[in-house]
Design brief:
Elements lengths: L2 E3 L1 H7 L6 E6 L2 E9 L8 E2 L23 E3 L3
Parallel strand pairs: 1-3
Antiparallel strand pairs: 1-4, 2-3, 2-5
């Protein structure tokens, strides 16, 4: 699993390519490496859902495919 992030957002947050990041929502969180991608719009994250062990589905409430999240660097 990985989390794609715009390089400008990553730079602003002090995140480098392959650095671990925590993605959290009110419903849950997961940790995965960052993957810098200029194809991702600033202010948004993209993560594939075909890694069930990563816990991505913990972020979502029932019947949703998009949610607001917070990106942090795990301690």
């Amino acid at each position: 699993a990985f989390v794609e992030i715009n390089p400008l957002d990553a730079e602003q947050l002090g995140i480098g390519d392959a650095d671990p990041v925590r993605v959290s929502s009110p419903a849950g969180s997961f940790v995965a490496p960052a993957k810098l991608s200029s194809g991702v719009e600033r202010g948004k994250l993209v993560s594939p859902v075909n890694f069930p062990d990563a816990g991505i589905y913990r972020l979502f409430r029932e019947n949703t495919t998009v949610c607001r999240v917070k990106l942090t660097i795990p301690e």
